[in-house]
Specification:
By secondary structure, the chain is an alpha+beta fold. Helix content is about 25%, strand content about 10%.
């Protein structure tokens, strides 16, 4: 008969669980760490979007520069100020229509092209109700080099009456402002002072700058800068 009550008898191993206080302490520590890490991760993601946006603007600047070199130094246009990322052969009022091949995109044709690589990832993240980019205004061109005068000077011209005008040559810009100090293209949002709630596509725009305290802007000397707003 097997003895179970001797000095060498096996004893069941005691089991210990977390007490309620220990669980609450663990939950509190996790909450504190999450509170510290999540904002840092959000800032890192926003910074990554801003860096990508700068790269896209530099590519757009290069495409415009190459276009002017092929067109007697004249800027692409005449175009509307709100810039879309989709185009076909009927999109001759759009910036991307003129610079598509210089940007590495297909030439305008009967096929509609949507160039997602032309769009800031911060815009995609922040614009309300983005289920697709077709038809959306994703950048804004400078539409007045002479803001302190009653005579509007549109550097990229304008294609619609009653203000039909041809685009300027790059060499004409410094008649109004130094090219290194005036933007050609900017991030777009509802907080821009020259974007009116009266325009039909205003509700499509992000409510505030997508990169936090700055907007990325391409200047007429083709450098890109994060400008406080």
């Amino acid at each position: 008969m097997k003895r179970t009550n001797g000095p060498h008898a096996a004893c069941p191993r005691a089991r210990h669980g977390f007490t309620l206080i220990e669980l609450l302490v663990v939950v509190a520590i996790i909450s504190i760490l999450a509170g510290l890490l999540l904002p840092a991760l959000a800032r890192a993601k926003q910074k990554a979007h801003q860096v990508k946006c700068v790269s896209i603007l530099k590519q757009i600047g290069l495409a415009v520069f190459l276009y002017t070199g092929d067109n007697d130094e004249r800027l692409p246009g005449p175009v509307v100020a709100g810039v879309r990322a989709n185009y076909d052969k009927t999109s001759s009022q759009e910036l991307i229509y003129f610079i598509a091949t210089h940007y590495g995109l297909p030439a305008p044709s009967a096929r509609m092209v949507l160039a997602e690589e032309f769009v800031c990832p911060g815009y995609i993240r922040s614009a309300p109700g983005v289920s697709g980019l077709m038809g959306r205004k994703v950048w804004l061109l400078n539409d007045n080099l002479n803001p302190n005068s009653g005579v509007r000077v549109r550097p990229f011209g304008y294609p619609l009456p009653p203000e039909v005008s041809a685009p300027l040559k790059v060499t004409e810009i410094d008649r109004y402002q130094p090219p290194s100090e005036v933007y050609a293209l900017t991030d777009i949002d509802q907080a821009l002072p020259n974007v009116s709630p009266a325009i039909s596509w205003w509700t499509d725009l992000p409510r505030r700058p997508v990169h936090g305290p700055v907007r990325n802007q391409l200047f007429f000397d083709w450098h890109v800068e994060a400008v406080p707003w």
